[in-house]
């Protein structure tokens, strides 16, 4: 997009490198007067002229055509999409003019919209935690129970004027014991919340501890890409996120799987195949001689900048999410089951059958993704052991061309704004929707 701000960016770059307007105009093959009009956003810049200006300024064309305002535009469009019904309709066609004339106000609106979205996500996550965290629920129940007992005992003591000394002594003992019980329950609850390792919502399970560690590493463990990779235990020694024994076990299992995939699909070999084949998991699996599972996992462990931005979720036969690597814009629930319409769950009932679907994630600004789902049984207990099924869903950017069949999905029923979903299993806390 060559926006109305292209001229401003041309001028800023020219001044930054101390280039005179006449010299830039000469290098671009235009008159200084015409360049002056461009720099004041009074003339549009064609593709050929943009290329000449970019070459003379020593920058990429996109730096002049889009600049840093692309994120600002996205933030303002999201703010516009979130306006309530009946409110004044924002003039989206004049968004560039708004940014050009009032850049400070535009940045403030976008920043506030980002803060509101962050707070909404925090509220949703806290609500999910209140609803599903078993320790928090039990602790709150213990506090309420102790308070109720104290209140009833105190009421008896206050309302009964004459009471035998032995009974009064018993009630006093009950008050003391219940107060100790309340103090211990409250202290345990505060300690649990204070030791949470996330700023706003806290880590409440070993799986979340492992995912916090992986998020910090970008899900790419560079030491495991080498042929002589270190022992798994050394990678989590001293890691603050992986503190509990259960989290360490999960982390070691993930490291062993990562190392197996890295051995079967070396990074350079996978990158070369991806460059030639494109992000088609089935084509890549056939070309590289592996199954779909390792290809999905390899997508989710690529270093930043290699390949498209990818997300990956896995679940077992119960539908419980066992691995979560979020894709930008694709919301993943922290607790409980996800949206029943995800292709991930469809794959569970169709083992060994690959499923491809373009989905539209519900939200204030709905976003589209290409998903690839696949499930495969294994027999870790031997031939006569139980059949264990794992389903995987790879999340990639949508195709560039228009897609006729879009599958509407959400994060989970509790925080999904879709009003008319036939698969809804419980009411949403987002009563008003988006």
Q: How much strand content do the residues show?
A: 5-15%
* Order of neighbouring strands in the sheet with most strands: 2-1-5-4-3-6
Order of helices and strands: HHHHHHHHHHHHHHHHEEHEEEE
Task: Let me know the average pLDDT.
Answer: 83
- H/I helix tally: 17
The strand count comes to 6
Rough outline: globular
Q: Tell me the number of structural domains.
A: 4
- The N- to C-terminal Cα distance equals 28 Å
Describe this structure in words.
The protein is of the alpha+beta class and 434 residues long. The protein has four domains: 6-67, lambda repressor-like DNA-binding domains (434 Repressor (Amino-terminal Domain)); 72-130; 134-194; 310-434, no CATH class. It is 51% helix and 10% strand. The protein contains 17 helices and six strands. The protein has helices at 6-16, 21-28, 32-39, 47-57, 61-65, 69-81, 95-101, 103-132, 134-159, 165-194, 206-217, 232-236, 245-264, 267-277, 281-288, 292-300, 343-348, and strands at residues 311-316, 321-325, 355-361, 367-378, 388-396, 407-409. It has a six-stranded mixed sheet with strand order 2-1-5-4-3-6. β3 and β4 form a beta hairpin. α9 (134-159) packs antiparallel against α10.
Task: Give a summary of the structure in a few sentences.
This protein is an alpha+beta fold and 434 residues long. The protein contains 17 helices and 6 strands.
Index terms:
alpha+beta; 434 Repressor (Amino-terminal Domain); six-stranded mixed beta sheet; globular
């Amino acid at each position: 997009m060559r926006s109305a701000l292209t001229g401003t960016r041309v001028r800023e770059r020219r001044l930054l490198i101390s280039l005179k307007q006449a010299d830039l105009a000469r290098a671009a093959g235009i008159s200084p007067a015409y360049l002056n009009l461009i720099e004041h956003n009074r003339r549009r810049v064609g593709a050929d002229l943009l290329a000449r200006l970019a070459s003379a300024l020593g920058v990429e064309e996109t730096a002049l055509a889009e600049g840093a305002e692309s994120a600002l535009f996205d933030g303002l469009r999201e703010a516009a999409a979130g306006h309530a019904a009946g409110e004044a309709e924002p003039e989206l066609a004049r968004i560039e003019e708004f940014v050009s004339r009032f850049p400070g106000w535009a940045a403030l609106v976008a920043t506030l919209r980002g803060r509101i979205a962050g707070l909404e996500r925090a509220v949703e996550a806290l609500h999910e935690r209140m609803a599903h965290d078993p320790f928090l629920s039990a602790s709150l129940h213990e506090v309420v129970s102790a308070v109720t007992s104290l209140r009833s005992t105190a009421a008896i003591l206050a309302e009964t004027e004459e009471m035998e000394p032995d009974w009064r002594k018993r009630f006093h003992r009950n008050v003391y014991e219940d107060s100790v019980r309340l103090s211990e329950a409250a202290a345990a609850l505060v300690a649990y919340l204070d030791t949470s390792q996330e700023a706003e919502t806290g880590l409440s399970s070993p799986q979340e501890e492992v995912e916090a560690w992986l998020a910090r590493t970008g899900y790419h463990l560079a030491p495991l890409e080498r042929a002589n990779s270190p022992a798994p235990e050394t990678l989590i020694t001293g890691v603050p996120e992986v503190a509990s024994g259960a989290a360490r076990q999960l982390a070691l299992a993930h490291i062993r799987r990562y190392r197996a995939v890295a051995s079967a699909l070396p990074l350079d070999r996978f990158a070369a195949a991806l460059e030639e084949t494109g992000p088609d998991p089935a084509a890549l699996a056939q070309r590289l001689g592996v199954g779909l599972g390792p290809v999905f996992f390899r997508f989710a462990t690529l270093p930043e900048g290699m390949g498209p931005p990818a997300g990956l979720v896995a679940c077992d036969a119960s539908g419980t999410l066992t691995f979560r690597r979020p894709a930008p814009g694709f919301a993943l629930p922290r607790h409980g089951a996800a949206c029943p319409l995800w292709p991930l769950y469809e794959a569970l009932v169709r083992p060994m059958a690959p499923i491809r679907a373009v989905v539209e994630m519900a939200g204030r600004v709905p976003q589209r993704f290409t998903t690839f789902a696949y499930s495969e049984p294994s027999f870790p207990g031997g031939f006569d052991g139980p059949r264990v099924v794992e389903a995987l869903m790879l999340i990639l950017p949508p195709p560039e061309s228009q897609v006729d069949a879009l599958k509407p999905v959400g994060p989970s029923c509790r925080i999904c704004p879709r009003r008319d979903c036939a698969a809804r299993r419980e009411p949403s806390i987002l009563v008003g929707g988006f």
